[in-house]
Amino acid sequence: MTNAPQLSVVVPVFNEQDNVGPLLREVVAALRGRVEFEAVFVDDDSKDGTLAALQALKAEVPELRVLHHVHQSGQSTAIRSGVKAARAPWVATLDGDGQNDPADIPKLLEARTAAEPKIKLFAGWRVNRQDSGSKRWASKWANAIRSRMLRDDTPDTGCGIKLFERDAFLDLPYFNHMHRYLPALMQRAGWRTVSVPVNHRARSAGVSKYNNLNRALVGIRDLMGVAWLITRSKRTGVEER
To answer: d(Cα 185, Cα 116) in Å, to the nearest integer?
Structure first.
């Protein structure tokens, strides 16, 4: 790549050897010729052939960069590693399972173009979920509880496709699972967020890394922590005189 990218696409992956190739090619099809971009795939110490598959793809896709966690550290840490390494001022994220549609990234970019500068996060909103009935039911109740406690005015914080300003993200407090609370955290920092309807697809390969129980157990503690952060935050304008 000769030009500095305008957009960094960050994709955390763990044991997704059959999904990384098709997903990367979809990213290329959606963005090449439209915007200067880089694709930063972060392998969270996969135990299958994910890392080898990504390394082989570098010969095919010059925009690809591959990061590897020496120890498995979770999705939030993988996203943060990718954002810290990103060379563009704006970052789009995708889940590594292929359920997010890279063709929606241009839609988020168009929303950013039409938005005011105060909006720093454009969050995907899965209006037609392609998950199991139990997962949709659990997500519905989790979103309702979160919305009531955090008042983040976001219908779907669990959607992996998002577009945000890199500096704004790196200014947020970091903790494990923070990626599930980005709208509330951005709003806490004084920025505005909007939700954009996006496509959602069934997983075509591999297995989910989460179940409803472990999401719930972790989510309760995290939700209480984020609510505490919001109550303890203070913001003010700063003037140099």
So the answer is: 19
Helix (H, G, I), strand (E, B) or coil at 48: coil
Q: For position 147, what pLDDT does the model report?
A: 67
Reduced to 3 states (helix: H, G, I; strand: E, B; else coil), residue 56 is: helix
DSSP state of 4: P
What pLDDT shows up at residue 49?
97
Q: Are 196 and 124 in contact (CB under 8 A)?
A: yes
Output the pTM of the full model: 0.87
**Looking at the predicted structure, is the pLDDT value of residue 214 above 60?**
no
Determine how many CB atoms are found less than 10 A away from the CB of residue 202: 11
Q: What is the number of residues in the chain?
A: 241
What is the helix (H) or strand (E) element at residue 136, kind and residue range? helix 133-150
C-alpha span between 36 and 175 (Å, rounded): 31
Q: What is the dihedral of CA 79, 181, 124, 78, to 10 degrees?
A: 10
Structure confidence by residue, pLDDT tens digits, 74-128? 999 999 999 999 999 999 999 999 999 999 999 999 999 999 999 999 999 998 8
- 212 vs 47: which has the higher pLDDT: 47
3-class DSSP state of 183: helix
CATH topology for the 7-131+154-207 domain? Spore Coat Polysaccharide Biosynthesis Protein SpsA; Chain A (3.90.550)
Tell me how crowded residue 77 is: count the other CB atoms within 10 A of its CB: 21
Q: Cα separation of 104 and 207, whole Å? A: 23
Per the CB < 8 A criterion, the answer to whether 99 and 130 are in contact is yes
Q: Are 177 and 80 in contact (CB under 8 A)?
A: no
Report the pLDDT value the prediction gives residue 209, as an integer from 0 to 100: 58
